[in-house]
Amino acid sequence: MSSKVMPLSGFPEYLPAERIIEQHVLGVIATTFELHGFTSIETRAVEPVERLLGKGGDADKEIYAVSRLAADARDGEQDPGKRLGLHFDLTVPFARYVLENSGKLTFPFRRYQIQKVWRGERPQDGRYREFVQADIDVVGSGSLPFHYEAELPLVIADAFARLPIGPFRIQVNNRKIPEGFYLGLGIAAEDIVTVLRIVDKFDKAGPQAVQEMLTQAGLTGEQAYACCRLAGISSTDTSFAGQVRALGVQHPTLDAGLAELAAVVEAAAEHAPGLLAADLKVARGLDYYTGTVYETQLIGHESYGSICSGGRYDSLVSDGRTTYPGVGISIGVSRLLAKLLEQGRVRVTRPTPTCVLVALNSEQDRARAMGVAARLRARGIATQVAPEAAKFGKQIRFADRRGIPFVWFPGAAGEDGQVRADSVKDIRSGEQAEADAASWLPPQEDLHPRVIASGDAG
Question: How many helices (H) and strands (E) would you count in the chain?
Answer without folding.
Answer: 16, 19
